[in-house]
Amino acid sequence: MSAPLKQTGQAALAGALLYAASPGPQALPLLAWFALLPLFLAIDGVPVRRAATLGFVCGLVFFLPLLSFIVIVLSTYGGVAYPVAVAVMILLAVYMALFPALFAGILQMLGGAGTSIWIAPGLWVGLDWLRGVLLTGFPWLDLGYTQYRQALLLQSADLGGHFAVTFLLVLASALLFRLLRRQSRRWHCNELPAALLLLGALVYGGFQLAAYRQSDAGTPSQRLVIVQGSIEQDEKWQPGQELATVLRYTGLSAGAQPGDLLVWPETALPFYPAGHPLFGEHILPLLRDRQTWLLTGTPYAEKVGGRVRYLNRAVLITPDGDIAGHYDKQHLVPFGEYIPFRSVFSFLSPVVETMADFSPGLDTSLLSGENAQIGALVCFESIFPELARAQVTAGADLLVNITNDAWFGRSNAAYQHLAMAVLRAVENRRGLARAANTGISGFISPAGEISGETSMFVPAAVSGRLPLIERLSVFSRFGHWFAPGCAALSLIALILGRGRRRPVRQGR
Predict the structure, then answer these.
(1) Which one of the listed residues 58, 236, 266, 486 is annotated catalytic?
(2) Which of these, 205, 298, 365, 407, has the minimum number of CB atoms within 10 Å of its CB?
(3) CA–CA distance, 308 with 195 (Å, rounded to integer)
(4) Mind listing the pLDDT tens digit for each residue in 71-108?
């Protein structure tokens, strides 16, 4: 086999391993700990441009299947022609693959994975952070999220966010590469600290898991009932379906008890509750009879300067039917709730016309319940660490994520979306309740352990308790600077040329 073909195969293998480790029913998350090793082997000693090409191959093999749900969103439910939907998915995968390409190219400019074991993880984290802020940000499924069901391995997220977990994953692959390439049995000065850091993360995880499991018993808590209505996306906004939707949710909520917080998903109500007859006839009696509070998603329209603004709103309703507070979704889904650069992408207008062209909320508003200060995250907002952190530093002692994942169909995207919510709980050490229209719903502890997990596309109601924690984690205080710090240090290293360049081998 020729060297170029072998390198391409190694890069593609790295992408395939990353995808196999990503959330889904058949996920193999432990593969992520050595998934980048084939890429490091592929780019070893090759020119910078060739390294970037191999990084692009790795990224494309990873992101094409990962983002396949985009076709379902746009074509099945968004009214976009299937070929156009496929083209949009490919374009998005190409854009995402540019970041692994940059990673491989810059890494080679800095001397390759064999020069310093710390350069690769810092550079990968820095580029992940950049992808999360560039062009409004699309931080979909960074590597750290692959470990969302490995509670022992997640705990360092309360120090540096999910980026800290990503750093450890890339560090593990870099360490393996160094061990394979070294010429003697003696440990290099970089290798032993890296191994000790990985071991230390496991020890830290064990201590933190034990501590949070023990503290649950003595911590004030809130009992919640999460309702998953499982309303199909193509039925949700059909005329005449409002009563059936309300009856579905009220029927599933019949087991609520006094003091409970009922949580219904994003836009569970296809109308605004205040003054609507169905609210007075069916929902208000439920709340009064059971003396429960309700947090639900609903669309809202307001007139501002002669123009109507549509908002994706979470409202908290008292047992007497009063609106105790609301939160308007701030980070909207591009091409799902609004069309950026509308003059260029006008052919995607049917997507937002299915519901409405939403406007972003303007501030972070906590919802003050009977016992809890609630930070709401509406749908897509759970993938942005800064939004959950803003809610917690503002005083939230409980996080609630309401979402409508029916758009994803039966793809792996529902698992991917859940994975990112798990990391928001661990980063901020807050309990998180997740109500998803078609699943996956459930309770996430401050240690990232999931309970009450529902099946997809099955109506369900699950009850449980989550602790109300007031203290701030290291991440909530200042650990959010870890990822931009990695980006800054990588940029400085690139500018100053501190990575020792390795000679390019001939014939590769």
Answers:
(1) 266
(2) 365
(3) 57
(4) 998 888 878 899 999 999 999 999 999 999 999 999 99
